[in-house]
Amino acid sequence: MPRYVAFLRAINVGGHVVKMDYLRSLFEGLGFTNVETFIASGNVVFDSSSRTPRSLEMKIERHLQEHLGYEVKTFVRSVAAVANIAAGKPFGELEEEGVTLYIGFVAAAPTAEAKKNLAACCNKANEFVILDREVFWLCRKKFSESDFSGAQLEKILGMKMTIRNANTAMRIAARYS
Asked: What mean pLDDT comes out for the span 118-130?
């Protein structure tokens, strides 16, 4: 049975506090098996007989909206896809002190125009690369000190996303691959 990771937006941020045991029970209520949460930032690993991540995303979003009372954008990737994403080196090896790589998960590949607009935002502090449905953001400042934000990324791309530190993807890949 395929194993997936759901990256959830708006879990345990912005006043939306969800206990991980409750989140696991919501996924189990959808018929998923071997459900685990990975750190309390909205990463859920589960098995499902479904072969289509997009249908899983819609199913999970409807269920979470119904039970949590607010929209939770959901981005599903197979565990194998997460391993490939984590292994990618869009900026080469990162060995600079104070440099962090973030990964933004989106539902569909951004348009050519969105890619062009995002490329125009690259500067000494921020670089971006889009590969398929992931936006790689190399940030040379602390996230809290950056002049760029996830909200700006969403506006430029014209779609919602959720962002994770690349270390999270690497840890998920190491644990579940």
From this structure: 94
